[in-house]
């Protein structure tokens, strides 16, 4: 089965307009900065917010289509009839119910007998390793345990679509790493559609097969992680993966930037609007104008030095703003400081364009 989303919705001054699909058996991460509209997408899918335009539909194995929401045909399926399990950002456990009652809640709401609902809930708690916590209250749990209870509660109703909003954001760094690998196993065991919302690329890397990058209410890019990281299509994605992104018009092997600067590329086959991703390791720095064969040479000003364990990222602002990555030894040899003028060079063989 697959979930097909074509959603337009307005919330105050914020407009969301996205299209994407998720197949059963794959985990898709909706990745983007705060305020991009990720939780809005999740609320729309969960049936907590109605669409203004577009449609949400589920296509079953046999090809049968179930419409969840389509304003044009006045269709709206309420949350409890969508076959979804939701893990909210703050887990939203009922504080006055025991862990067991929390997990059994959805089953009871569907009219399942108490004894049977409790047995199912206990089985699910065992599966997430929390059988012994069944009679605790949510406030007696650690963050990681609360996350697992929320997941068990979402799975209890045997959903075909599992939605998780920032499932790890509430946890401290140490717990997060542990819960992340546990969540990865739990997700892999769920056969339906899996969609997680996150602003953390590390979570997306660890948990998702594919990402849908959301920025300002629109899909900026979608693809496998490799595709997205190798060929970023927005400044946000390039920054996430630590690449420089240049955008311009490619003509006869030269990328023309909007400010008129020409960047010589490796191959001349591509023409038209194009991007170039430049790895910081391929940007060379010089104190004096370099001589020799590099044709892409520009001067600029050092505006930031970011010292990491075994490398230094140097931000140079100028005609072609770029981040260079050098070794600590090179930093000393070049005697660089913020405010200094430097020359940067990039070999044409490092400039590989792809269509915009
Ligand atoms: P994200 O989850 O990516 O951080 P959200 O979907 O929560 O983003 O929010 C997207 C935008 O929608 C934000 O700009 C926010 O101000 C706006 N928004 C969220 N909830 C409401 C609301 N209840 N009413 C009006 N605007 C809202
Ligand atoms: Mg959110």
From TrEMBL:
GO biological process: molybdate ion transport
Record keywords, A-Z: ATP-binding, Cell membrane, Ion transport, Iron, Iron transport, Membrane, Molybdenum, Nucleotide-binding, Transport
ABC transporter domain segment(s): 1-241
Any one cellular-component term (Gene Ontology): membrane
Protein name: Unannotated protein
Spans through the membrane: none
UniProt-listed CDD domains: ABC_Carb_Solutes_like
GO molecular function: ABC-type ferric iron transporter activity; ATP binding; ATP hydrolysis activity
Annotated source species: freshwater metagenome
Key word Iron present: yes
PROSITE patterns in the record: ABC_TRANSPORTER_1 (PS00211), ABC_TRANSPORTER_2 (PS50893), MOP (PS51866)
Domain Mop, chain residue ranges per copy: 291-355
SUPFAM superfamilies reported for this sequence: MOP-like, P-loop containing nucleoside triphosphate hydrolases
Pfam families referenced in this protein's UniProt entry, alphabetically: ABC_tran, TOBE
Biological classification of the source: unclassified sequences, metagenomes, ecological metagenomes
């Amino acid at each position: 089965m697959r979930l097909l989303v074509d959603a337009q919705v307005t919330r105050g001054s914020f407009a969301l307009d996205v299209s994407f699909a998720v197949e059963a058996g794959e985990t898709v991460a909706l990745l983007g900065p705060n305020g991009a509209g990720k939780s809005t997408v999740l609320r729309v899918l969960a049936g907590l917010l109605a669409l203004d335009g577009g449609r949400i539909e589920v296509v079953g194995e046999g090809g049968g289509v179930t419409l969840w929401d389509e304003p044009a045909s006045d269709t709206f399926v309420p949350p409890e009839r969508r076959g979804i399990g939701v893990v909210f950002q703050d887990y939203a456990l009922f504080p006055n119910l025991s862990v067991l009652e929390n997990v059994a809640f959805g089953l009871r709401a569907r009219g399942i007998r108490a004894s049977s609902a409790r047995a199912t809930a206990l089985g699910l708690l065992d599966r997430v390793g929390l059988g012994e916590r069944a009679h605790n209250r949510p406030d007696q749990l650690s963050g990681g345990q609360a996350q697992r209870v929320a997941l068990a509660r979402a799975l209890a109703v045997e959903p075909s679509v599992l939605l998780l909003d920032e499932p790890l954001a509430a946890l401290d760094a140490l717990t997060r790493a542990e819960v992340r690998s546990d969540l990865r196993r739990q997700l892999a065991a769920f056969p339906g559609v899996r969609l997680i919302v996150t602003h953390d690329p590390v979570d997306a890397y660890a948990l998702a097969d594919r990402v849908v990058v959301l920025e300002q209410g629109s899909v900026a890019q979608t693809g496998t992680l490799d595709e997205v990281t190798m060929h970023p299509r927005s400044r946000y994605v390039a920054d996430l993966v630590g690449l420089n992104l240049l955008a311009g018009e490619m003509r006869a092997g030269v990328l023309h930037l909007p400010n008129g600067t020409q960047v010589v590329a490796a191959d001349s086959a591509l023409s038209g609007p194009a991007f170039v991703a430049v790895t910081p390791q391929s940007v060379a720095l010089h104190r004096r104008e370099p001589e020799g064969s590099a044709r892409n040479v520009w001067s600029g000003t050092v505006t930031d030095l970011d010292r990491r364990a075994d490398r230094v990222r140097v931000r140079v602002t100028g005609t072609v703003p770029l981040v260079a990555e050098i070794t600590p030894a090179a930093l000393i040899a070049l005697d660089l400081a913020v405010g200094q003028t430097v020359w940067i060079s990039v070999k044409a063989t490092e400039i590989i364009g792809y269509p915009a």
